[in-house]
Amino acid sequence: MPLPQKTDILVIGSGNAGLSAALSAAQTNPTLRITVIDKSPVSWAGGNSYFTAGAFRTTHNGLLDLLPLVNNTDATQASRIDMPVYTEQDFTADLQRMTGNRTDPALSAALVRDSRAAVGWLAANGVRFQLSFNRQAYEVNGRIKFWGGLALKTQDGGKGLVEDELRAVKNAGVDVFFDTAATALVTDQTTGAVIGVEVVNTDSAGVHKKTTIAAGAVILAAGGFEANPQLRAQWLGPGWDSARVRGTPYNTGDMLQIAQRDVSAKTAGNWSGCHSVAWDADAPADSGNREVSNEFTKSGYPLGIMVNRDGERFVDEGFDMRNYTYAMIGRRVLQQPGQVAFQVWDARTVAWLREEEYRGEVVRRIEGESLEELAEKCTEVGLVDPGRFMESVREYNASVEDGDGQKRWDPAVKDGLATKGLAVAKSNWALPIDKPPFLAVKVTAGITFTFGGLAVNPTTAAVISETTSDEVHGLYCVGEMLGGVFYDNYPGGSGLTSGTVFGRRAGRAAAERAGKSGRLERL
């Protein structure tokens, strides 16, 4: 199918937010022609959404509210599940706490209020949801205990999410084109409204063709600047140019810059902030691996300790539940000498680590029958001071409040099992590391997405002009490009939910605008 010369709605980006917007527009007005373009080849379809665990944070009234959405829980299993209700007040409080009360009130209110409807809508359109037993629940005393306000994921994670959403938009009649990069926004010289996009399409022979697509509305969903080392250094600060890229190599901030250049789009949000995780130090540098995907994440640090290459602990590994800390822990690792750290456990907690993240096929496991042996093996992969490593572990072990902590150790709650007297405390889940065999893995910082973006109308996701403070007519922005929701940190699973919530809003608004604009002429 040839690239169209005109379309009613043009969506730029094939991730969750863009596909949600396209599907929403198609359902709002099925008579419209809706086109999705992405500069990536089809082999990289889905943007960063593909590399996620597929977690969606939503309000809910407990297990019975979510069971109709999922396909992996039978009645016997359900009878063993403990799942606290997660209210709008809970979600709002988490957003405020994670962002230091800087989240935009109108945007966060929309995200929270629409979250349950958004996941229900996705499920109704063929997205396969499951309860996230492997990531968000622990079995304790025979009960399956969900924690951290997060219970849902998509089947097969981000891979399954993108597969399901692509099928849904194609079934709705949406055309999707890859190898097509937007290079400029075209505006009406009289009204300033966006009426098209200049693009460069690359065909199967590698030939580049410039063309212009006329559009009644344009929705930007092209991701942040996390794969652009120059912009990372400029906005995030020193050292970020060498961070590992967790996802797609195609999120380089092009459309953020183009929107500012061509329509004076107003910026918003935390441009010096990002989502960054503890990431396998042996992972590729400039992009994720689509086969391994999210499995390079190393999120078992709350169950053990972390030391830098000098053997020093540097962070409270247990200051909150993992899904409230993992998105900022990468920054703490990046600040360490050599931008690396070692996660360490003993036999007590190794069995609690996620197999998909810590099995030998996806990570180099450093193992020892004694701490001395473990330290020596760590020196082979970058530990500089094994003596200080040993001292740090001994100091930590001596500071644990209850050496027999198994009696009340509970990874599904903040159990209060803490250290005493250390300069760097561990506030929860503190058990001695003294029972062989021992395990360590080497991690670095993996950047997921950037928090800075464009200012939008919270109701429609229409882009705001820096010059006029009014909407840029015909232009909408969703996903990572939307600024103002997240600052410094975020509650796990909020990003995909935000993409769908504002994608739906943008799709509806764009369809209403395009439906009123009449027939489009070729530019």
Automatic annotation (TrEMBL):
It comes from the Eukaryota. Its cofactor is FAD. Pfam families: FAD_binding_2. GO terms for molecular function: oxidoreductase activity. Residues 8-494 form the FAD-dependent oxidoreductase 2 FAD-binding domain. Keywords: FAD, Flavoprotein, Oxidoreductase. This is FAD-dependent oxidoreductase 2 FAD-binding domain-containing protein. It comes from Penicillium concentricum.
